[in-house]
Please model this.
Amino acid sequence: MSIYSDINADLQMAAACDTAGMDWLDTPRADVWRKPLERIGGEMAARATTLVRYGPGASFHRHDHPQGEEILVLGGVFSDEHGDYPAGTWLANPPGFAHAPFSRDGCEILVKLCQYGGEGRQRIVTDTLPWQRRCRQGTYTLFDDPAFPEKTMLRALTEEAVPPAYHDHDGVELYILDGVLRVDGRRYGPGCWLRRPPGSALTVRAEGFCRYYEKRNHLPPPENRR
Model:
């Protein structure tokens, strides 16, 4: 399949990727590679979720984001002319935000394009690393604004913890950061990405300890759903 094709583009279907078993693919920029998880459209995608790796000294030309951008820095330091963002940083760049991203020593990021749109969005830069280092259980809220439908967070679970419920929602997306999460009995380790459509029930439980990114209520409900 061409990387410029639609990938997991039907948002009413469940999808999953284990990025540990995927090859890094070239991008239009030298020393930048990606693993596409979902994409609607070609290179100028209308929607995309991608794991991206910058080599040392890699950069992109200055560009804007008409429908917003979300970034979770997984490793290294991601930078642009507005600042440096080490591992653990979560960024939400609103529609119209422009930057020229680069990395001096290399980095790895989870990027969501065209999924932070709408008038009134604010730019958010959050350092989650202190929370990640100290918390073995709980939730770190990244975005929860009553003016917009989605909720974005990090979760930490131990095997003994009561897991969150997933049944009444407009879509759920998970990306495993550490440990193993069992979803409906199946094991998902670091680098696994899952998406479930609106209204689908799923059960989760940590195997030992697990930390993961979660976004929910961000997918369009089925047309026949009230």
Observations:
- The first strand starts at residue 15 and ends at 18.
- Helices lie at 129-134.
